Amino acid sequence: MTSVAVTGIGLVTPAGVGAQANWDRLTTGVPTAATDVRLAGLPVQFSCQVPDFDADALLGNRLAWQLDPVAQFALVAAREAIADAGLDAAAWDASRVAVVVGSCVGGARTAAEQAGKLREDGPGAVSAMFLPKHLVNMVAGIVSIHCNATGPSMVISTACASGSTAIAVARDLLLNDRCDIAIAGGAEAATSPLYVSGFARMGTLSRRNDDPAGASRPFSAERDGFVMAEGAGMLVLERAADARARGASAWARVLGCGSSADSHHVTSPHPEGRGARAAAEQACAQADISPSEVGHVNAHGSGTKLSDTIEARYIGDLFPSAITTSTKSLTGHALGAAGAIEAAYTAMSLRHQAIPATANLAPQDPEIDIDIAAEFTKTSFELAVSNSFGFGGHNAVLLMAQ
């Protein structure tokens, strides 16, 4: 199977704006969760927010005004990824450039704001920009418009697996000669009172209002839910042979992708982890490698009781030699963007031969018997897996190599 190279990375996350800022923060092992003034008075009053994001400075006042934060994040990350890949969007064959973005909800802040205007002031107060700023497809549309891409353009929505699924779809487009370059990833900006309240009502969020930095605790015996986050992760993907031909360096290669549905429950994973394992086995089979060769797993690791236990059981069984981490312990759970952000982190881990810490791990759940990086770990490995699972039983697994 022809491999696909990750030639560019762009990141806008709670760990910072820019890929280098993200890696620098990951090396510290310091969580980004903090009190969020927008959530004052709610049962959960903290989140992981993108720091120092000046949309006017990064995009210009007029364009920034036209976009919901979800599209702002996506566009800034996409532009960074393109520059990192050494490509010029003004000069490429736009018809051969695809855009595939994962997102759960699109313009969440715009929707809440405009619903408030309708309720308080009537239909005449609703902005004519409401739909262009809110509709989930516009996340990919904005990237296509402002990055000169006229090839396939789409948004993938598979809940918290959306970003990873988008990368898998982009890889398929490349391998089926539907494009020569793919801008792929995920974006989300749903750290709003409505969505935080919804997740809180479901019992999936940590309630550690007095200790936000200690709230995201994947695989810990003291975990009590995940922490909401926002941001975007965008990758430039090319066929590895094409990247070599133009002298581009690659962060990593995507060797295999697997996807599956649990067909079990709207929110809970299959109790035996069948869907997750099936997706991982697909990814390994595509690459024709044995799971025992995988040296690192960037886990979904959300910090919820049931999900972490089931995921750890499957990891220990299928990837016995791997060192596992959950970067959600540092950056929170960015929903539809999470898988793309974590795919970028996995590629960076392969480049740097280092694994970020799983913060707040102690005490590790005694029922979770896998090797988890409790601190930033320099090591040597050639193959890594990134897991993403979502409501509705969606599973996506990416297998990457140096």
UniProtKB/TrEMBL annotation:
Which Pfam families does this UniProt record tie to the protein?
ketoacyl-synt, Ketoacyl-synt_C
Q: Where is this region: Disordered?
A: 261-285
* CDD domains, alphabetized: KAS_I_II
Which PROSITE patterns does this UniProt record tie to the protein?
A: KS3_1, KS3_2
Reply yes or no: does the keyword Membrane apply. Answer: no
Q: Where is the composition biased (Low complexity)?
A: 276-285
**Family per record:** Belongs to the thiolase-like superfamily. Beta-ketoacyl-ACP synthases family.
What name is this protein filed under? Beta-ketoacyl-[acyl-carrier-protein] synthase family protein
Record lineage: Bacteria, Bacillati, Actinomycetota, Actinomycetes, Kitasatosporales
